[in-house]
Amino acid sequence: MQPYDAAILIGRFQPVHNGHLALLRAALAQARQVIVILGSAHQARTPRNPFTWQERADMLRAALPEAERSRMALLPVRDYYDEPRWAEAVRQAVAAHLPADARIALIGHFKDDTSGYLRAFPGWPLVRMPRQGQFDATPVRDAYLGAAPGALEPALAALTGQLPASTRDWLARFAQTPDYAALQEEWRVLRDYRASWANAPYPPVFVTVDAVLRCQDQVLLIRRAHAPGKGLWALPGGFLEPYDTLWQSCLRELAEETLLQLPEAQLRAALRGVQVFDHPQRSQRGRVITHAFCFDLGDTPLPAVEGGDDAAHAQWVALADLPAMEAQFHDDHWQILGHFFPLPAPLRS
């Protein structure tokens, strides 16, 4: 008899590999039902999160026979870059799926520091599993996205021992899409970016600024002109210049990327707050700490804007439209907006 009503398995599954499959089968042996939490849901495609939660759900279903598939529930949960808030979102998603008296266990293993999330659920007994082979999704993604033109087939063949056959087939099909080519471009840019400071004595910590500018219940956004995040919505911002203060860098980036022409005194009067966003995983470029300056211009006429510098386009966007745009944002900029403004309901989990 299985000791639990439900076993919870949390992961990103980017993509599904044989280690995930072994944990999933161990969870099925512990409980009548397995609830898989698909993390990093509702995000734009990036080399770290190349596949949507729906695509990862398809990979998981395809890797199991029907008898096991029917015992699995798949629940997407977004990244909040705030562990207590994220853990509560996971608990709420599980609670909505199970009766209140269900016997629940958490299945997982401590691979490295990234496994610390397993400690965020003290109310669920943890069934610790040994590491299921030397499987890791990061080198799988690197091999897949780094494949040279015409070399995809040997790259996938080299992953035969790491991936279920269904995942390899799925990846081969996905490689025929425009999204794959765009992800490869992003992957190459990020690889070269990291290589430029690989010989530094310590990994660098970058400091950036972002401008959150509100006017008439609209917010000023740009579309990024270059990778990483090419074509995605973002806040106007950029890196701190060596001889600038944070304030000066914010005003400079705002003017350069949107061609906004407002006096500094007007912007200073409109400043409503500054918030630091420093989650270690908020940017794929490395450790990037940003200072977001929030301005509110009230009901004044919308200032004219136009994309410039690193921005392909600048535009005022209604706050009410933001929830539907979540998967089109760069890094954690959608979450930054959600910090300053209560985004309209309904929001997904």
From TrEMBL:
Ranges of residues in domain Nudix hydrolase: 204-340
Protein keywords: Nucleotidyltransferase, Transferase
Entry superkingdom: Bacteria
InterPro entries according to UniProt: Cyt_trans-like (IPR004821), NUDIX_hydrolase-like_dom_sf (IPR015797), NUDIX_hydrolase_dom (IPR000086), Rossmann-like_a/b/a_fold (IPR014729)
SUPFAM superfamilies named in the record: Nucleotidylyl transferase (SSF52374), Nudix (SSF55811)
GO MF terms, alphabetically ordered: nucleotidyltransferase activity
Pfam families: CTP_transf_like, NUDIX
Record PANTHER family: BIFUNCTIONAL NMN ADENYLYLTRANSFERASE_NUDIX HYDROLASE, PHOSPHOPANTETHEINE ADENYLYLTRANSFERASE
Protein name according to UniProt: Bifunctional nicotinamide-nucleotide adenylyltransferase/Nudix hydroxylase
